[in-house]
Structures are given as structure tokens and as C-alpha cells.
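Deliverable D5.2: sample structural annotation.
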Amino acid sequence: MIKVKDKSACCGCAACVQICSKQCISLDEDKEGFLYPTVNRNLCIECGKCEAVCIELHSFEVHEPLKFFAAQHFDESVRAASSSGGIFTLLAETVINDGGVVFGARFDSDWSVVHDFTETHEGLQAFRGSKYLQSRIGNTYRQAGKFLKAGRKVLFSGTPCQIAGLKRYLHKNYENLLAVDFVCHGVPSPLVWKKYLEETIACQCEKKSVLLHSNPLISERDSMAGIRKRKIDAISFRNKNLGWKKYSFALDYIPGERIYASFSS
């Protein structure tokens, strides 16, 4: 069974969780908010499948890049809504036009990041833009495998570790799979992200606040109206409103208020 003795030897790709037929492995947060597998020993039958898909226990063959390309989406609005050139959207649109399915990372209702899939052009909007924290992969490897076996084209985007986990889980190559990863420098902690959001909004409101897990509402005292609610409407890690050469973090409230935290690209 999977035993995480050294956390640096686990990337939290969740391949072990999804391959387990007894569902005895779960991803649990440590004190820093990162996700690591935990085994329920009472349910485990020691089949060894979790170890077979672990990317840390099995090395990959190194391949040299075949070709390099520089490109951008032809639609300026798509580029503005993306982190850089909008290539993910261009690839995803092509797959959907062929009747395929696209997997990517989106914000959940509590502004954590989860993996999901869409079969429509409209659904791609949630996947655009970088989200700088560890995502919950859920059971998307399993879902992707079902689509692939049904003969549908699948685009799966994620970190290099997540793509490696997907390929170990699938255990074979599929011609109808387009796996898209990116240069990754490591993922920040979801716990730090939650604390950052709460402290940022509390500072903006100049009052103590609580970020509710089920719905990200912030309570703010108003001398005229008592307690009113503030809700996050949108978050952009690489917003272009201050320019393309100096990206900014943008947080939109309802109704219609935005704050920026700028940083050099």
C-alpha cells in the first residue's frame, strides 16, 4: 500500500486514490494545507495497484522535444482573459469542435481550485487563466478514461505531475488523448490561499471577517444598515487591466468593486 514517509516524495497527483477499487485511499490536508494520500488499513486488501500507478515510484522515459512553436489566439478578448497567449483555448476549441471533452482547472464555490470537464465552448471560460495553488483532481482520471475508451477525443490540462499521474492511471497510450501541461515551479498551499483571501478582504473592509467555506461571503458592519454581505464575484491571477508588461492580481466584489495587487511579470 502507499506509505508517505517523506512528503517530498509525493506530489499529490491522486492517481493512487482513483485506481483503488476498494476506495480506501483519501487525500487529506496536512498542517500546511497540502494534499497527501491516507490509507484506511481496515479496507485495504494490499492489491498493490496504488503503488503501480505512483509516479514517484516509477521513472518515466526521457524524451527530447520534437518541435517548438510560438503562437497566440487570434481573438484579443480571449488573450486578455488568458494568462498569456490563449493557446489552451485554441486547442480546447478544436477538440470540442470534433465532439471531444476538455478537462481543466476551475475555481470552486469557495474559491479553491478543482479539476473538471466541459463539452461546450462556454464551459472553457472557467478553465482560462492560471490558478496558482494545488487543485483537487477529484475523479477526473477515471472520467477521462471512460471518454477515451468510448472513442472520444480528450484534452486534459494540468501540472506535469498531474499529467504523469493521468498517464500512469490509464496504463496505455491513447491516440485520442491530448495531454497539455506547462512549466511548473511548484504549487502554493490552498490553506495559505484561503488565509490570504480572508486577510485581504478583511483589510479592505477594515473589519474582522470570516470566509465561509460553503459560500465566500464576507460580513461587514455598516453604520446605516447594520450587517450587509459582500461576495467575491471573480478572481484573476494575471489580470491585464494595468497592462501586459505588469500583470496584477485582481479581485472583484459584488456589486462592481475591484481591488488590485500588482507585481512585475
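Annotation notes: The two ends are 43 Å apart (CA to CA). The helical segments are 15-19, 49-53, 76-81, 87-97, 140-149, 160-170, 190-205.
The annotation will be released with the project's public dataset once the embargo ends.
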